[in-house]
């Protein structure tokens, strides 16, 4: 056990049981049992992280891949993940690490110091905690984020937002930006597609991040027959506008048949265009469509229609903003330097 990290946010109970309080699953674990996330285990009445420092994926990505379109555009984000996730989404595109135990993959041992050093060597402006679910490697993320902040790097995460308020509060002082997956607007949707999630904790996370000044963008994967009706989209768009603000970027993402939903067809282009049009009509200023090749929904525009940022795929081809402002002087919401 010398190579394991004692977990944060758990309580000891009678008979060496423990309850994990990191995420809303709040797993009750008997000795020897591993949580739903596949990343935390009760060993003789103490909860341990099984994935601390065991990096299953690492890349120096464009920040746009997170996706974060209004945060240091054109910069690189040194991106890391471990195995495990606190949801079991049927459509997961990274299921080969998120739905695996750490001993089922080839992981690279890295300390927080090594992660930060590599990020600096590769010219990254930020470290991204992403790919699987950063909440479940909380201790490793937090230790790395503290070092990164001290070295002048930004910290960003792409997360399902399924975290309890206390650990979120501990993380936020070191977090600069987040993209949160808002998968749907009902518990019924979350239960069917993620196995164990609920929507309210995700909404609470979104509101908390916004209230504390963390730069926030939202992603919604449109699953055919699941959450892609005009009514579903309208409900999500209205919630984002009312609770996060009209200047919060919203990314609609195209579903592709993967993992347990290989029987479904990809999201039709018409559905994606319709969703983006609904968001714009309802007053959201920055609406994007991902996982497709498109100019219309990949660029950022000033309110007068002038091109602010031109993107091809995940790459910035033009940035016509000056300190986050259009030529007219209009400020575009975001973090630009």
UniProtKB/TrEMBL annotation:
Question: What name is this protein filed under?
Answer: AmmeMemoRadiSam system radical SAM enzyme
NCBIfam families with a match to the protein in the record: AmmeMemoSam_rS
* Record-listed [4Fe-4S] cluster binding positions: 85, 89, 92
Ranges where the Radical SAM core domain occurs:
70-285
Top-level lineage group: Bacteria
Q: Name one GO molecular function term.
A: metal ion binding
**Cofactor annotation comment:** Binds 1 [4Fe-4S] cluster. The cluster is coordinated with 3 cysteines and an exchangeable S-adenosyl-L-methionine.
Annotated SUPFAM superfamilies: Radical SAM enzymes
Query: Which terms are listed as keywords in the entry?
Result: 4Fe-4S, Iron, Iron-sulfur, Metal-binding, S-adenosyl-L-methionine
Q: What organism does the UniProt record list as the source?
A: bacterium (Candidatus Gribaldobacteria) CG02_land_8_20_14_3_00_41_15
User: Does Iron appear among the keywords?
Assistant: yes
Could you say which cofactors this protein requires?
[4Fe-4S] cluster
């Amino acid at each position: 056990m010398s190579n394991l990290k004692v977990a944060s946010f758990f309580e000891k109970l009678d008979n060496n049981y423990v309850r994990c309080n990191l995420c809303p699953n709040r797993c009750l674990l008997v000795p020897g049992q591993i949580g739903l996330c596949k990343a935390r285990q009760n060993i003789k009445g103490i909860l341990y992280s099984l994935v601390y420092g065991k990096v299953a994926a690492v890349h120096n990505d464009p920040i746009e891949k997170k996706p974060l379109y209004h945060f240091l555009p054109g910069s690189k984000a040194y991106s890391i993940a471990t195995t495990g996730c606190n949801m079991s989404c049927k459509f997961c595109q990274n299921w080969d690490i998120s739905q695996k135990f750490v001993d089922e993959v080839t992981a690279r041992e890295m300390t927080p110091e090594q992660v930060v050093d590599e990020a600096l060597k590769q010219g990254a402006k930020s470290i991204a905690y992403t790919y699987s679910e950063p909440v479940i490697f909380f201790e490793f993320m937090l230790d790395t984020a503290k070092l990164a902040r001290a070295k002048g790097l930004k910290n960003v995460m792409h997360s399902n937002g399924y975290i309890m308020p206390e650990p979120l509060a501990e993380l936020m002082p070191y977090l600069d930006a987040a993209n949160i997956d808002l998968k749907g607007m009902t518990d019924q949707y979350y239960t069917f597609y993620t196995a164990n999630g609920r929507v309210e904790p995700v909404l609470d996370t979104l509101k908390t991040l916004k209230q504390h000044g963390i730069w926030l963008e939202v992603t919604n994967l449109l699953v055919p027959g699941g959450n892609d009706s005009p009514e579903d989209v309208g409900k999500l768009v209205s919630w984002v506008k009312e609770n996060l603000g009209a200047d919060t970027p919203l990314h609609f993402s195209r579903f592709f048949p993967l993992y347990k939903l290989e029987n479904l067809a990809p999201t039709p282009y018409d559905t994606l265009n319709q969703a983006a049009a609904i968001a714009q009509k309802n007053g959201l200023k920055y609406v994007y469509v991902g996982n497709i090749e498109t100019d219309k929904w990949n660029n950022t525009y000033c309110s007068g229609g002038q091109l602010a940022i031109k993107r091809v795929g995940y790459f910035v081809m033009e940035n016509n903003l000056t300190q986050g402002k259009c030529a007219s002087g209009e400020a575009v919401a975001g973090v630009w330097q």
